[in-house]
Amino acid sequence: MIGKLKGLIDSYGEDFVILDVGGVGYQVHCSSRTLQHLPSPGEAAVLSIETYVREDQIKLFGFRTDQEREWFRLLQTVQGVGAKVALAVLGTLSPADLANAIALRDKAAVARTPGVGPKVAERIVTELKDKAPAFANVDPAIVHLAGAVDDQRAPRPVADAISALINLGYGQPQAAAAIASASRSAGEGAETAQLIRLGLKELAK
Q1: CA dist 98 to 120, 138, 195, 197, Å?
Q2: 3-class DSSP state for residue 61?
Q3: Which of 140, 142, 204 is closest to 168 using CA atoms?
Q4: pLDDT (tens digit per residue) in 107-138
């Protein structure tokens, strides 16, 4: 199996690059994000490779980092997500943004991917929620709170306060982060109005 290729950029296609490795041109399929970050033809590049072998073809998928390749694999463990959809997701969200979106149950961020509807986005967020925190760079308390709200385990004042901030136009991750901070300040038993007030102060910082 090919795990990595190092060579010169020969040319670009719509969703692939031809990488010249010692005079052999490899066609490597990449996300739009990866293609945008690769250098001009004639310049050197290194890609982590995922090799797909089928009866009628061998297909190479290329990634700028091993972490991006790992997400490509993880995404395809979700029902209804194949290589094409996985590449589209990675073209829309960086690995770090994807990890954060899944950890915070932010289905809307995942659903911004062309060709990914709300149902597939929900499956991605739900089925990969246990894998995401290891890759995410958000406060574990916020991840825990976002999960509790999504599973309807959060205290009612907390859930209501997050809902109120979302209704004011803030995104779910922002609202969850602000209320997580507010509930730490206010302590257990804080009322919804107090959490909203403290959450808005947090967002105004």
Answers
A1: 14, 12, 28, 30
A2: strand
A3: 204
A4: 888 999 998 999 999 999 999 988 776 665 55
